[in-house]
Design a protein that fits this description.
8% helix; 5-stranded mixed sheet; Immunoglobulin-like; 3 domains; 397 residues; 4-stranded antiparallel sheet
C-alpha cells in the first residue's frame, strides 16, 4: 500500500514538471524571429581596373551583387562621383539568395593620365546602408598637341610673329598628316615632318596687315590617316594690344564735397615696340584740380597724378575729365572721365508724437446733500429716517 502511494506521488510530480516545461518553452515563430538577419548585400568586386584606355573610348563595367540575407534587398540609389560617370538601369530589388547588376560607364574624352572614380550605393541593409564602388585606370590620348591653343600676343606696330606646334603620335599605328588648312588669312601654317608617322611640327606665322587692336581668331585643321580620329583641330588666337593703355579707364571720387584733399593716379603705358611716346598739356576741366605727369620709363611708362582739393564737388550736369596729348598720331589724345559718387540722403528724424492732455474735470459747484426735515413737534435726530408713505383711504371715508 505504501509503495503504491509513493508511485502515484512520483508520477504526479513528473506530470507537473512536463507541463511546466511545455508552458515555459518559447513558440517556434519567436525563435525564428530572433535568428532573422534581414537583407544583406555582397559584391563580387567593389573595385574595377579598366587598365589603359584611349581618350574618347568609354570604359564600361557591370558590378554584380548578391542578397546574402533572408529578406528583400532594396537599392535606393546609385550616385556616381561626377558627371563623367553614369549608372545604367540597375536592379532595384533582389530576393534572398538572388543577384543583381549595376552597369557603369565612364566617359574618358576629357581625361589624360591616371583616373580614380567612386560610385555610392545606398540600400536598406541596416548595418551597411552605404557601399562605395571604385573605378580606376589610365587614359591616354592617341596624339599630343603642344600647345593645345596657339596664342599670339602682339604689339600694335608688329609686322609679323611666328610660333611652332608640336604633334606627337602615342599609338603603335602610324599617323599620317595632310597639309594644314586655316580659315583666317591672318594666320599661315606650314607642316614639317620630323619622324614620318610619329612626330611633326606646324610652323604658324602672322600675316599683315593686323587689326589696329583687339582679338582675331582662327582654326587650324590637319586631316589624318586614322578612321577614329579623322581630323586634328587647333584653335588660333591673335591678341593685338592697344598702342596706348590707360588704367583705370575711369576715376571715381567719394561723394562731395570732399572732406579732405585727395590724390588719384592714372597709369599710361606705351605698347608699341619701336615708337617712343611723349605726353604734353595735361589738364582737368574743373577748377582747383592739379595735374602732374611722371615718366617712369622714358617713352614707355608714365603716371598722371591728379590732386583734388578739399571741398571739391562736381557741379550737377557738368562732365569732368582728365586729358593729355600724346605724340602718337593714331592716338593723339588720352581722356579719362572723372565721376563722383552721389551723396547718400540722410533721412530726417521723425517728428515727435503729439501728446494729448487728459480732459479736465468739469468745474461744477459742490451742492451739499439735502437733510430730511423732522415733523413739527419732534426733534430731529441722526437716527431718524423718513416715514414710509401712508396707504390711501378706502372710498367713502
Amino acid at each position: 500500500m505504501r509503495d503504491s502511494l509513493g508511485l502515484v506521488l512520483i508520477m504526479g510530480f513528473s506530470t507537473l514538471v512536463a507541463e511546466a516545461q511545455q508552458t515555459s518553452a518559447p513558440p517556434a515563430t519567436a525563435a525564428a524571429t530572433t535568428n532573422a538577419i534581414g537583407p544583406k548585400i555582397q559584391f563580387a568586386s567593389q573595385l574595377y581596373d579598366f587598365g589603359r584606355v584611349r581618350s574618347g573610348e568609354p570604359a564600361k563595367f557591370t558590378y554584380v551583387f548578391t542578397n546574402t540575407g533572408d529578406a528583400l534587398l532594396v537599392l535606393n540609389n546609385v550616385q556616381p562621383q561626377c558627371g563623367c560617370t553614369a549608372a545604367g538601369e540597375w536592379t532595384k530589388q533582389v530576393e534572398p539568395g538572388k543577384t543583381g547588376n549595376i552597369p557603369i560607364q565612364f566617359n574618358t574624352a576629357a581625361y589624360n593620365g591616371g583616373v580614380f572614380k567612386q560610385i555610392t550605393v545606398t540600400c536598406n541593409v541596416t548595418t551597411q546602408s552605404m557601399v562605395i564602388l571604385q573605378l580606376k585606370g589610365t587614359v591616354f590620348k592617341p596624339y599630343d598637341v603642344n600647345p593645345q591653343i596657339a596664342v599670339f600676343n602682339l604689339a600694335p606696330d608688329a609686322d609679323t610673329a611666328s610660333m611652332v606646334l608640336t604633334i606627337t603620335n602615342n599609338m603603335e599605328e602610324p599617323l599620317l598628316l595632310s597639309a594644314p588648312e586655316v580659315n583666317n588669312p591672318i594666320f599661315a601654317a606650314q607642316l614639317i615632318t620630323n619622324v614620318l608617322g610619329k612626330g611633326y611640327q606646324v610652323k604658324l606665322t602672322i600675316v599683315p596687315p593686323l587689326p589696329a587692336q583687339g582679338s582675331a581668331q582662327g582654326h587650324l585643321t590637319l586631316k589624318t590617316s586614322w578612321a577614329n580620329t579623322p581630323n586634328i583641330p587647333v584653335t588660333l588666337v591673335a591678341n593685338i594690344q592697344p598702342a596706348v593703355m590707360v588704367n583705370p579707364p575711369t576715376i571715381t571720387l567719394p561723394p562731395g564735397p570732399l572732406p579732405r584733399a585727395l590724390t588719384n593716379s592714372v597709369s599710361i603705358q606705351n605698347n608699341t615696340a619701336t615708337n617712343l611716346l611723349t605726353l604734353s598739356e595735361p589738364k582737368v576741366n574743373a577748377e582747383g584740380v592739379g595735374v602732374e605727369i611722371r615718366e617712369h620709363q622714358p617713352g614707355k611708362s608714365f603716371s598722371a597724378m591728379l590732386a583734388f582739393p578739399q571741398g571739391f564737388e562736381i557741379p550737377a550736369g557738368q562732365q569732368v575729365e582728365f586729358s593729355v596729348k600724346t605724340g602718337n598720331p593714331r592716338f593723339p589724345e588720352v581722356k579719362v572721365p572723372v565721376r563722383q559718387m552721389p551723396r547718400i540722403a540722410t533721412p530726417l528724424p521723425a517728428p515727435p508724437a503729439p501728446t494729448v492732455a487728459p480732459a479736465a474735470a468739469p468745474n461744477f459747484p459742490l451742492v451739499p446733500p439735502a437733510t430730511p426735515t423732522a415733523p413739527a413737534g419732534k426733534a430731529s435726530s441722526a437716527t431718524d429716517s423718513p416715514a414710509p408713505p401712508r396707504p390711501p383711504l378706502p372710498p367713502g371715508l
